[in-house]
């Protein structure tokens, strides 16, 4: 019963936060401003959003191709189509339950290409570490270009003291958990140790790769496509079409972190995009409309390709 309650809360609480942020932001607008936001949607050039979807598709396809670079050293090479559909399904699942997509990816290739779940999940963790390194570089670039704006914005919205307390608490709990797992011989401890062994093999597969440079190329390419996917959207509105490179990178970084607050960034993405653009002299109405336009384009892509993948995956593998 407790497990079921926790699962429900994982879905409901981020959604409620998203709904609250939508209510909070739109409650500040006058009727005239709401009409202005609607006009921005009506006058937007949606051809640029279609081009944005193409960049997003290429990024996910590259992620699917890159995955095999880590699986090959362990003796596995799933079909590219299965990898791609697993990636799209993962993003679709993340819209419902945050971070559940990584589990679904591992489950898909476990079912259709016989890759052990723990090893597959370990490679996914490894590639996320590589992605975080690239994102870290983009964050540093954003700070170099717009240090004052980002510093003030982050200090205003991030509860640093609470995060520090939470970090220390989680670290202590993690140490206690590891002590229990490796110093006891309960049935559950043995199962977890076996799972961790598989995860470690998948995680360290990145060190055994023969195709290191292709892996690096695809990692960089994925993030170039992410930035391009965001950048091309600025031309959908006349008011945002003259954004400088530093504004684009700064807003991209804020948007990337905003996605973690709620299910796929629902509510939080447009809210934080509008807030950061205020620092660059962009009105709240334009910023809000732009934030929703970017988020909706990404949402449509995930819904379209994720939904198709769910339908086509069993058809593509019907002979297995």
Automatic annotation (TrEMBL):
Membrane topology term reads: Multi-pass membrane protein
PANTHER family in the cross-refs: UPF0104 MEMBRANE PROTEIN MJ1595 (PTHR39087:SF2)
Protein name, UniProt field: Uncharacterized protein
What residue ranges are annotated as transmembrane? 7-26, 46-65, 129-147, 159-182, 215-237, 243-262, 292-316
What the entry lists under InterPro entries is as follows: L-PG_synthase/AglD
Does the keyword Protein transport belong to this entry? no
Which intervals of the chain form a coiled coil? none
Instruction: Look up the record and report any one GO term of the cellular component aspect.
Output: plasma membrane
Q: Where in the cell is it found?
A: Cell membrane
- Hydrolase listed as a keyword: no
The UniProt keywords, alphabetically, are: Cell membrane, Membrane, Transmembrane, Transmembrane helix
């Amino acid at each position: 019963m407790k497990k079921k309650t926790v699962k429900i809360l994982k879905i409901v609480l981020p959604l409620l936060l998203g709904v609250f942020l939508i209510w909070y932001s739109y409650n500040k607008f006058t009727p005239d401003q709401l009409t202005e936001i609607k006009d921005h949607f009506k006058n937007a050039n949606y051809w640029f959003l279609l081009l944005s979807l193409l960049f997003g598709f290429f990024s996910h396809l590259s992620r699917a191709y890159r995955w095999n670079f880590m699986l090959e050293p362990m003796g596995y090479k799933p079909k590219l189509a299965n990898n791609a559909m697993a990636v799209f399904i993962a993003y679709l699942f993340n819209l419902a339950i945050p971070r559940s997509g990584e589990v679904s990816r591992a489950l898909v290739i476990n079912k259709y290409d016989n890759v052990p779940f723990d090893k597959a999940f370990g490679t996914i963790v490894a590639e996320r570490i590589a992605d975080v390194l690239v994102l870290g570089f983009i964050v540093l670039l954003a700070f170099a270009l717009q240090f004052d704006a980002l510093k003030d914005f982050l200090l205003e919205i991030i509860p640093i003291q609470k995060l520090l307390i939470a970090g220390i608490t989680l670290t202590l709990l993690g140490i206690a958990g590891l002590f229990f797992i490796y110093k006891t011989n309960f049935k559950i401890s043995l199962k977890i140790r076996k799972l961790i062994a598989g995860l470690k093999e998948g995680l360290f597969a990145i060190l055994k790769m023969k195709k290191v440079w292709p892996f690096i190329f695809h990692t960089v390419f994925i993030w170039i496509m992410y930035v391009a996917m965001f950048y091309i959207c600025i031309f959908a509105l006349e008011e945002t079409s003259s954004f400088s490179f530093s504004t684009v990178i700064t807003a991209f970084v804020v948007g990337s972190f905003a996605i973690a607050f709620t299910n796929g960034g629902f509510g939080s993405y447009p809210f934080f995009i509008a807030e950061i653009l205020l620092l660059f002299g962009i009105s709240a109405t334009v910023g809000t409309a732009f934030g929703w336009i970017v988020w909706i384009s990404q949402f449509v892509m995930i819904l379209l390709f994720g939904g198709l993948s769910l339908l086509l995956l069993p058809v593509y593998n019907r002979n297995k």
